[in-house]
């Protein structure tokens, strides 16, 4: 029996798998996001309590003892903890937008590009660099009180195991301080961001990923537990995306596009990041866009529609959504991939009194699809494409995505991040598992040739509208 823990942005989940990779049981608990005036925070106590709660419920349902557990979770943000891993203040989420003025300064003075050329990481307001610099300016006492500035899963790992010090892994550390060649912190980047005097807050990097024994909260005492990688690379592992050129699209709160690569190219427009993996010389070229299911959630809520109606709404509007177009950049921190525009905002175009909720919903799904295509092209997709995430529960939307992307989609269902966390833990502990069986796709969805041709033209129009919107955002 193997357990994967996925500490998501809005939902904490734990899943149990047998040795052949069959998902046997899942427990989930929602966690609150406090969103106000560009600030997005989470209470660490609530997040940790949710982890313990889902683990207790899950393990109580299992007929067999847990042999091994793996941990993953949301990336970026800043989770300030004391020496025991307990919160100093609420966590600043990766969705937080308060540091956008700092990012504007760094974009203007060349710091932004200099960091990318050294690390392959394009800064955005919700990543640790800008957030730590913002805290240093506005809440220095919080940094003074902290022992470490960790990532979400690292806080959970330290608390579950009682580890004496905070530790992260190379995947989480990839944004924004890691040198992807040496797999260690680049102190030059720390200096560029004005954080040399806060260097001691950066957690140690477990390479390979850190391992420890559960102390008895949630998991039975003594259960082997491994920390990492974070949710994007964990999903890539869980979907079997490891061969160079193959890609993964995660249709979740964050619309994440990942392509496996052995090439490190720090040229071109600074955007996205290179995520270091458990194998030196292998990276994931990542374009984790802020646009995602959160945009669709907003449109459904605003139109009074329910998630259960999504397939019917998509069927009720034609391709092209009766002329309605949506640029789905709803995040208060703008966009971070495949470009960085902190002030970019969503646009609804072609709306009139005859526009129906179905038109708005389909236009949003199409707009998210266009954003995904943009990200995957920028990430260098050349091989097969897997897809997972909450958005794939809608068969109609998944089919629409295949048409917009113009390529077959290998749909991987279930708790893909938790599955990847288990596979990473098994590799760390030397437990042999059949990874091909664990990552077998549920089905393959082929695009419709006529609709794919239609959407290829729509994609070019999307890029034109986006260019004009980006120009306005910079004024």
TrEMBL record:
EC number: 2.7.1.27
Stretches assigned to the Carbohydrate kinase FGGY N-terminal domain: 1-234
The keyword Kinase appears for this protein: yes
UniProt GO MF annotations: erythritol kinase activity
UniProt keywords, alphabetically: Kinase, Transferase
Keyword Transferase: yes
Enzyme class: transferase
Domain Carbohydrate kinase FGGY C-terminal: from-to ranges: 272-427
Family: Belongs to the FGGY kinase family.
Protein name: Erythritol kinase
Organism from which the protein derives: Streptomyces cyanogenus
């Amino acid at each position: 029996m193997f357990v994967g823990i996925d500490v998501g942005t809005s939902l904490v989940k734990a899943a149990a798998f047998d040795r052949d990779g069959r998902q046997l049981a899942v427990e989930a608990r929602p966690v609150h996001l406090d969103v106000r005036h560009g600030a997005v925070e989470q209470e660490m106590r609530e997040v940790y309590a949710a982890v313990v709660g889902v683990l207790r419920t899950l393990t109580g349902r299992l007929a067999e003892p847990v042999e091994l557990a793996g941990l993953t979770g949301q990336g970026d943000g800043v989770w300030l903890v004391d020496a025991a891993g307990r919160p100093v203040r609420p966590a600043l989420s990766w969705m937080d937008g308060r540091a956008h003025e700092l990012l504007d300064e760094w974009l203007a003075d060349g710091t932004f590009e200099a960091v990318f050329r050294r690390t392959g990481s394009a800064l955005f307001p919700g990543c640790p660099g800008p957030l730590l610099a913002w805290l240093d300016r506005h809440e220095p006492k919080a940094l003074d009180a902290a022992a470490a500035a960790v990532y979400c899963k690292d806080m959970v790992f330290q608390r579950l195991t009682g580890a004496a010090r905070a530790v992260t892994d190379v995947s989480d550390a990839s944004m924004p301080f890691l040198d992807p060649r040496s797999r260690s912190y680049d102190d030059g980047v720390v200096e560029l961001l004005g954080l040399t005097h806060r260097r001691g807050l950066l957690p140690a990097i477990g390479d390979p990923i850190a391992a420890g024994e559960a102390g008895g909260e949630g998991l039975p005492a003594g259960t082997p537990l491994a920390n990492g990688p974070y949710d994007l690379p964990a999903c890539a592992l869980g979907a079997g995306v490891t061969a160079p050129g193959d890609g993964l699209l995660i249709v979740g709160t964050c619309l994440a596009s990942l392509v496996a690569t052995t090439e490190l190219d720090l040229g071109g427009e600074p955007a996205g990041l290179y995520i270091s993996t458990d194998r030196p010389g292998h990276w994931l070229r990542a374009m984790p866009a802020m646009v995602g299911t959160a945009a669709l959630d907003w449109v459904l809520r605003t139109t009074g529609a329910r998630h259960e109606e999504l397939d019917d709404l998509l069927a009720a509007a034609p391709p092209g959504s009766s002329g309605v177009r949506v640029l789905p950049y709803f995040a208060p921190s703008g966009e971070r991939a495949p470009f960085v525009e902190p002030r970019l905002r969503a646009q609804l175009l072609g709306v009139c009194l005859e526009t129906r909720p179905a038109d708005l919903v389909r236009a949003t799904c199409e707009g998210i699809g266009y954003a995904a295509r943009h990200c995957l092209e920028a990430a260098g997709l050349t091989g097969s494409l897997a897809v997972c995430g909450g958005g794939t529960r809608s068969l109609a939307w998944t089919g629409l995505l295949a048409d917009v992307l113009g390529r077959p989609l290998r749909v991987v269902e279930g708790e893909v991040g938790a599955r990847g966390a288990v596979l990473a833990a098994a590799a760390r502990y030397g437990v042999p598992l059949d990874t091909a069986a664990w990552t077998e796709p549920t089905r393959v969805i082929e695009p419709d040739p006529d609709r794919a041709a239609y959407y290829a033209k729509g994609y070019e129009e999307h890029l034109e509208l986006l260019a004009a919107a980006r120009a306005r955002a910079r004024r």
